[in-house]
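Quick question: what would this complex look like in 3D?
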Amino acid sequence: MTQIETHKGILLKVSRIYFDAVEDQQDLFQEIILQLWRSHASFKGNSQFSTWLYQVAVNTALVFFKQKKRQPKQLPLAEHDVAAEPAYDNKYERQLACFYRAVHQLNKIEKALIFLHLEGRSGEQMAQTLGMSAGNVRVKLNRTKKKLQNLTEVENHEI
Amino acid sequence: MKFDEINDAMKQQQAGDLKIPASIDQLAKSQLPIRLVHMRMVSEMIAQLSIMVIFFSAPFVIKMHEQPKATYLILMFLTAMMTVGYVLKMYGFVRHNSKLNHNSRDTIRQYIFDLKILLETYKTAIVAGSLLLPLALAALFLGAEQVDVSLYNKLFMLQLSAGQLLLLVSTYIALAVIIYVVTVKWSDSLYGHQITKLEAVLAAYSETDEAMV
C-alpha cells in the first residue's frame, strides 16, 4: 500500500484520462488498486515497480473502459446532481480542462498512448506495455498527438 | 500542444474524490466470494440443463409402455419448466452482477440481498421439483416394458389398500423432506458460506468507518 501511495499520481492520471465522470474515475481507480493487490504476488522484481504498475494500470483501464462502454449511461435524477462547470482560477486549469475534454474523445488505445507519453515513457517501453511494435507505436502516437491538437483547437475555438 | 504544461497542471491537481481505500483487504475479500458464487452458479446451470436433457432422453433408452411414458414425460415437463425458471433467474443474476463493480459497501449490501432472494427462489423450485420427481421416476421404472404394467396401474390408479396407501404417502413425504433438507444443506454449502463472508466484509467496513469518525 505504501508503494501505491507513492505512485498514486499515476493512477489518478490514468483514471482522469479514461473517464470524465467522477464515479467512473473512482471505479477505475479502485479497480486498478485491486488488480495491483491481486497480482502483486506475481511481480518478480525483474523490472521496476513503476514499469509493472504502468502495465497493470493500462491493461485494467483498457478492459474497464470496454466494459463501461457496454453499460447504459446513467442520467442524473435532478438538476442539482449535474455538476456545474467549475470556474477556472488560472490559464493552466483552463488548459487542463480543455485537454481532458479533448482526450475523452480519443479511443482507448489513443488514451493509453497519451497517458504513457505524458509519463515520459520511451517508444520501446510503450510498445512493451501495449503489446505493439515500436514502429507502430511511433506512427500511432504521432497521429494521436495531431488528433489531440485538432480537438483542442476546436475546443479553444468553442470556448 | 504543450505536454509539459499539461503534465505540470495534472501533478498540481488535487486527488479530490479519488481515494485509496482504507483497507484493500476489505475490497479484495468482497470480490473473491462474489466470483466464487458466479462460478458455482454457472456450473450449476450447466449441470441442471444437462440433467434435464438426460431425463428427457430416458424414455428413448428404456423401452416403456405408452401410458407410463406419457405420465413420465408430463411430469418431467413440469419439473423442467420449474428448473428452467430458476436457471433463467440465476443467469439474469450472474449477467447483471458481472457488469457491476462491487467495490462499495452499498453494492455489496445490495448483492447480498439479491443473492438471498435468489436462493429462496432456488430452494422453492427444488422443493416443488422434489415433489414431482419421485412420481416421474416411479413412472419410469414401473412403466418399463420389462416390468409388469399392473404395478404401475396399482400405484397410479391408487389400487391399494388403506395401509399400503398410508405407507406410500408416508414414504413419499419422508422422501420429499429428505430431498428438501439435502437441497438446503447443498445450497448453504455452495452459497451460504459466501454470503456469511460478504456479511463479515460489510461488518468490517462498518468498524472501519466507526474508527475513522
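Answer marked as accepted. Residues 86 and 122 of chain B are 6 Å apart (CA to CA).
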